[in-house]
Amino acid sequence: MNTFLGILIPFAGTTLGAACVFFLKNEIKPLVQKMLLGFASGVMIAASVWSLLIPSMDMSEHMGKLAFIPAAVGFGLGILFLLAMDRLIPHLHLGCSEPEGKKCSLKKNTMLVLAVTLHNIPEGMAVGVVFAGMLAHNSDISMMGAFALSIGIAIQNFPEGAIISLPLKSEGNTRARAFTMGTLSGIVEPIGALLTILLASYITPVLPYLLSFAAGAMVYVVVEELIPEASEGDHSNIATIGFAVGFVVMMILDVALG
């Protein structure tokens, strides 16, 4: 029951963020959006380090000076995986007029949701891998540590849900439709986490690689998408401040709860 609740927490963050469409009239102000994107970036980078990469290396201590290998290999594969997904899946980022990925005839709104869904794949994977490690009674991953990752991702999912649903409404969709599409963009997280947990018996032997794989995928999203989006328009330090706050919040969650 605790595991099921844990994998639903990030999805709840997306849903609550998407619900902002019922309370806010217009799109989020550019400065606020920059801050939220920076905050999300900070949370994801901190989660990648404290919740994924460090446990990956701790689990590989028996390799001595080569304990970095699973973390380095998994991290690189995570980057390559998201790079391939970015090239294959048609999607459109906020503020862009040209879609990325393979050419298709999908509607603009659909491709906007696909862009956020693509971002959520590594987050769902990260939660699933950590809970799978906890269920396998790995001493490097505790129940509270797994929940710390879920809570951290839920916190950064809140602005993501709002950032996708509000523009959808401003483009002519009803509040209910914008909310539904914003919520569905996060459904891949609990599904991915659940599938990962169901494969736990196969995952345990390669857990250090999978933890760092998820870290690489998350870092890819931050560097490729979140930071550039936070830097668009007039120069401002607000995104940097948001990054610092997000990083510290996730670091505190992981250390205090983990």
UniProtKB/TrEMBL annotation:
Its main location: membrane. Signal peptide: none annotated. This is ZIP family metal transporter. It is found in: Cell membrane. It holds the Pfam family Zip. Belongs to the ZIP transporter (TC 2.A.5) family. It is a multi-pass membrane protein. The keyword Repeat does not apply. Keywords: Cell membrane, Membrane, Transmembrane, Transmembrane helix, Zinc. The chain crosses the membrane at residues 6-24, 36-54, 66-85, 112-135, 141-158, 179-203, 209-227, 239-257.
